[in-house]
Design brief:
With 247 residues, the protein is α/β, with parallel strands linked by helices. It contains eight helices and eleven strands. The longest helix has 17 residues.
């Protein structure tokens, strides 16, 4: 914690340099779909990852630390490590899923604290330091972009939302995928949430078939943008007593 506090002092000293993280709202490669899943890890992650693997698809998961489940729970660690071993990509969705634009710059519960805790979890569990961050609710301002820049991260938004998190029915979500497939934009950066059984059982199989029939190729976010997903990778760490969500 002392190292973390010292690091924050350094960040405070240089934040006013005016440099802001890049914000991506769509893919840059033609004829691709990047499927993304927010708000995990949760009980459906392993099933989603396996379904994707069985269809030859790699996707991107933006995870929280302590939202629907604690990222350090044994089942969640297993789900993350299994999905990562299958080639899926992971970015940060911050710790609690708070609106970052409402938080102070630093200190407990601040912007950097929300970012740092999830980064630490990914470093411990997967051995990766994320270069991609999705702000909760898609909300950001220059202060959030400054914090992300200092943490060497890009902000990843989306250009298609199936409406699962706002209560859209299965039929409405499938219609949304049908409509975007028929419109056939040059590429699609799709927002989904891994926290609903219908995503696994109803929406994802439908979306895969519908988009493939329109000739799209499925890729990860880093592939669709031509950027690195991680700042560095290493071996995952061994669990210690501080792997918990009570910190």
């Amino acid at each position: 914690m002392l190292i973390y506090c010292l690091a924050l002092l350094v960040l405070q000293a240089v934040v006013t340099n005016g440099q802001l993280a890049t914000v991506y709202t769509s893919c840059t490669k033609p004829n691709v779909v990047a499927l993304t899943f927010d708000d995990g890890p949760y009980i459906y992650e392993q099933g989603i990852a396996t379904l994707l693997k069985n269809n030859g698809i790699k996707a991107t998961f933006f995870i929280n630390g302590n939202n629907w489940e604690c990222v350090y729970d044994d089942a969640m660690v297993t789900a993350l490590q299994t999905a990562y071993a299958d080639g899926h990509e992971f970015g940060s969705h911050t710790w609690h899923h708070y609106d970052l634009t409402t938080l102070p710059w630093d200190g407990t519960g601040g912007i950097h604290d929300e970012m740092w805790r999830t980064e630490l979890a990914l470093q411990r569990i997967l051995g990766v330091s994320p270069a991609l961050m999705r702000p909760p609710y898609g909300n950001y301002n220059d202060e959030v972009r400054s914090a992300a820049y200092l943490r060497n991260q890009s902000l990843i938004l989306w250009d298609f939302d199936d409406g699962d998190s706002t209560g859209a029915s299965v039929a409405a979500q499938q219609a949304a995928y049908t409509n975007v497939a028929n419109a056939h934009p040059n590429n699609i950066l799709a927002l989904n949430h891994e926290t609903y059984a219908t995503t696994l059982n109803n929406i994802l199989p439908f979306a895969i078939t519908t988009l493939r029939n329109k000739g799209y190729t499925f890729v990860t976010v880093s592939q669709c943008l031509g950027i690195n997903p991680y700042q560095w990778t290493a071996a995952p760490q061994t669990r210690t007593s501080d792997w918990n969500c009570d910190i």
